[in-house]
Amino acid sequence: MLKFILLAVWVATVSCDQNNLPSFDTSKTLDCTKDHSASDPCKLNLVVEPLTSMTYYKITDNVRELMGYRATFDCTGNLVPLNKDVKTENMEPPIITDGHFRSIIAINGQMPGPTIIAHKNQQLMITVYNELKNVEGISIHWHGMHQKGTQKADGVAYVTQLPIMPGQSYNYDFKASPSGTHWYHAHSGAQRTDGLYGALIIKDDLPGDLYDYDYPEQHTLVLMDWQRHASIDLFHEVGSRLDFWKDNPQSNTPPFTKYVMTATYDGTIVGPVPFWSGIINDKGRHYDENGKTNVPLTSLNHFNCKHGKRYRFRLIGAEGVYAFKFHIIEHKLTVIASDGAQIKSIKDVDYVIVNTGERYDVVVTCDKKVGNYKILAETLEDGYRSTDKGFYNPVDHHIAEAVLHYVDAKPPLGFNYSRNHDSTTKFKVVNCPFKDSKKFDCINVDKFEPYDMDIIPQSVKGTPKKTLFYSFGFDGELSTHGSSIDGINFRFPSQSPFDDITTFEKDICPKRGCDHKTDTHCACTNVIDLHDFKKGDVVEIVMVNRGVIATRPSGTSHPIHLHGHYFYITDVGYPIYSDDDGHFRQSTDKVECIMPNQKKCEKFFITSDDDQGNRLQTVQWLHGNPPTPKGNFALKDTVIIPFGGYTTIRFVVDNPGWWFFHCHIEEHQLQGMAAIIKELQ
Question: For the whole model, what pTM was predicted?
Fold first, then answer.
């Protein structure tokens, strides 16, 4: 059986026994600031290749021996080859992930890829090589980089470039701006959640006495909800409505257990796939049904600190589906930045919720007894709910783990953790996808304050030129579970606008919205054309997440990312919650959907036109009366729309290009919850 598994790793290779790779650096950190000024261009190579976790490989002078040797943990917790006759000298250490053997996508032999560190405005010249050796094209998006004047480097296949096919390379050439905590990841298919991602840190000099040490090469934590199968397989299972079964439904051996989606603290849905394991950077642990794991605590990543010192930790959400609430046992956090933009410090925080695509910078003060403390990222699943006890493992073990290690402390011999079930404790939580809960005192993005209020343009504080409403939800084509914007499932064009604008424009949706009364299939390239705006105008977008049924939690919150821009948060609207348990009761009543005869929309809460461009129905503020902005104009590029509510953003129209605008949950984006914003074209 082992021989068969190893042969599967060798399929479609250059030769039978080795793979000649482009030159690359295997260092975990590629530091463009070391011995270089901001005026010095930095040239890097990133080589993308297929590997397997828990496998030893040998590489010499950029030649990888394709034969892999499967690894396991022995009874003492040491990593050893499964075949005891194999000698591991001069071999690369295995990529552990969660201790299970599965295919992954590696960058420079690592997963995640190396952390890239650069000066602000430093020119980055990064050549990406596709060595996947199959039919998959790739592209890499530099998440957080605004790409002013360099939109072809934004890295969205069929939007800003054609995909990089196997054996090909592509040169990304752009300025590292803005500063702060960012990341890079695949923007083709489902490759991101198979390992094609890494941290991108643009150095800054934050004002104020915030921390003593900032070591991005040591204290950057990338959070991932890891799965047991390749992401494209999961996508097909979800999109085809095959469901998830704990037992093989074809075995004719009952009972069979079907996965039922879990719920979060406001009673709304968490995610379409069952949780398998969580990893921080390259390490984590899978737990079985009994809450047991074969991965020793000592194998987890350890993050060092000195007693009495304050450290800047950088948190990056790379998750596919599940948001994580991050905390460190016995330690409070101070939140100082979100998505790379500094905010006024939020102190004494118990948890920071990090959604996929988001980044948070926190200060950790190592002022406890010298020792070792669990670092934990927990899902938002509510373990109190009787029906939500987990599928592959208990909800209490739906976590990603690491260790905060005080220098001079003895190595941890082992300590256990389960979620705090003290119902009398109310925690201070930053970035909830709901207003509050019985357990959480939430400080959400509408309460964030920019560190420097003077950076907010007066035009943003005033009346925007136009307000646009767009509905994010599951109103679309049922065969793809309906992930859509205004009822349209986004379909990538056959050509990017930079390569063939004529062909690209033929793929654009002929009208706005799709109510599915006459269109049973509504999938096309959804373009939001800002043709009415000139440079310097301010556009306001109200992102509505009402759900198909206003009185039932028929959806989930959505983390929405806009390429090419920061935006300003001006308002967040929440649904109506029950006074008894804090659960969702009804969607917000601050927005409405009406038809030309002023009747309420019958079913789909979207804006849509007919084939002649006449408006069929319109989403707007209730009675056309906009609320007064309640947000403090904090800067972000990825933000949650609470289920049953809305989030209002504004940005200055000043960056010509075609900018992707989408939900960052992998399944939702692939199913079609996306659009392209056409700006100043």
Answer: 0.94
